[in-house]
Design goal:
Organism: Austropuccinia psidii MF-1
CATH architecture: 2-Layer Sandwich
Radius of gyration: 13 Å
Helix content: 25-40%
Shape: globular
Number of strands: 5
Keywords: RNA-binding
Number of domains: 1
CATH topology: Nucleotidyltransferase, domain 5
GO molecular function: RNA binding
Order of helices and strands: EEEHEHHEH
Protein name: Integrase catalytic domain-containing protein
Strand content: 15-25%
Strand order of the largest sheet: 1-2-3
Oligomer: single chain
CATH class: Alpha Beta
Length: about 100
C-alpha cells in the first residue's frame, strides 16, 4: 500500500490516492480519498474495495504512514490473519512497484 499525495484538489475531487498493487498479478487498485482520512476511514476503504472483492491478503507491505501503523490497524491485521511488513526507507525495491504506478 502506498499513499500518493501530490495532487491538487482543483484538478480532481480527491487530493490523495491509496494505491494497492497485487505483486502476483501486478493488478493495481487506486482508491481516491482525502488527505485528512482517519485510520477508520482508511480501513473502510480497504474493507469495501479490497477484502470484499479480492479476499483477505496474507501479507501487506506498506510504507510507514501513520494510518497503517496505528493500534487500530495492528488489531485489524491480527483479527483477519494478515501479516504487516513495512518497507525499508530509501529502498525502492520494496514498495517501488506501487510508487511506479503513479
Amino acid at each position: 500500500m502506498y499513499w500518493a499525495q501530490e495532487f491538487s484538489q482543483e484538478e480532481m475531487k480527491a487530493s490523495t490516492f491509496l494505491i494497492m498493487v497485487d505483486r502476483f498479478s501486478k493488478s493495481m487498485r487506486c482508491l481516491p480519498c482525502h488527505k485528512e482520512e482517519t485510520s477508520m476511514e482508511t480501513a473502510l476503504l480497504f474493507w469495501n474495495n479490497i477484502i470484499s472483492t479480492c479476499g483477505v491478503p496474507k501479507i501487506i507491505i506498506s510504507d510507514r504512514n501513520p494510518n497503517f501503523t496505528s493500534e487500530f490497524w495492528t488489531n485489524l491485521y491480527d483479527m483477519i490473519g494478515t501479516k504487516l511488513a513495512f518497507s525499508t526507507a530509501y529502498h525502492p525495491q520494496t514498495d517501488g512497484l506501487a510508487e511506479r504506478m503513479i
